[in-house]
Amino acid sequence: SLLVTAEALQCLWSLALAAVDVYALLVKRAFRTPRATTIYSIGDWVTGALTFAAASGSAGITILINDDLMMCSENHCPSFMASTSMAFFTWFAIAPSCLFNLMTAVYRVQRA
């Protein structure tokens, strides 16, 4: 359930950022203040850390059920494995955004 919650939070965060971007395009104004980039960076890091923690926990449970307990046929292991691998793919997709926003936030705070 942690994986589902983390991915739901990631989707909500991404939708919120998309709404802010659409609003910025409509009013023809960029939100690149040091405060805004810091908020983006913190949000990306929080959602990225939650996604990675949830994916790691799900991988551990899947390995426990599959390898140690040998109960994979009773517990839908292929769907667990697929969701865990997609969570790791999601985290790898988030990582460049986290790093870019962190570098931008540090640059903006240093210039302010």
TrEMBL record:
Its main location: membrane. It is a multi-pass membrane protein. It is found in: Cell membrane. It comes from the Eukaryota. GO terms for cellular component: plasma membrane. The chain crosses the membrane at residues 12-31, 43-65, 85-107. Belongs to the Casparian strip membrane proteins (CASP) family. Homodimer and heterodimers. This is CASP-like protein. The lineage of its organism: Eukaryota, Viridiplantae, Streptophyta, Embryophyta, Tracheophyta.
